[in-house]
Design brief:
Blueprint: E1 2-6, H1 9-31, H2 35-49, E2 59-66, E3 74-80, E4 85-92, H3 101-115, E5 121-123, H4 130-138
Parallel strand pairs: 4-5
Antiparallel strand pairs: 1-2, 2-3, 3-4
Helix pairs in contact: 1-2
InterPro entries: Acyl_CoA_acyltransferase, GNAT_dom
Organism: Pectobacterium actinidiae
Domain N-acetyltransferase: 18-158
Length: 158
Amino acid sequence: MVNLKKMSAGEFAAYRQCFILEYAQDLQDSRGYDAEKARAIATQSIDIALPQGPDTAENSLWCIHADNTEPVIGYLWVVFNKHSAWVSDFFLLPAWRGLGLGKASLLEMEAVVAAVGINEVGLRVAVNNQSAKALYEKIGFQTTGFNMNKILNSDRQK
């Protein structure tokens, strides 16, 4: 149903822009940052985490394709450790959501991860992303804790 293809340098440029836009929006929604600060944090985050782009060690970046078709329908970024993997980012283009392709993408990723001897996968889901949380729970992910945040020295402090 889906195909994970190693991301090329050209595809990474498009993914990087997508990541920055999506993560900046998440930072605005979840932490109350203004657009400029959120974009700066998102840009710095991906540039530090992936200094060699798709060739950064211990990271796998894939483009998601439906049924071996040419257009990219989403992206998946997984960081590998010795005994576990962490889904740093998973994004399906809006037109492809709700069709079972998110589930298929995650199950394909699990097969790839298991094939290299990893037996645990973790991820973070934004508190306001109930559809993603439901998908993750449906395929067996369990809540293991909560991320909490406090803004210091700001009028946005709650």
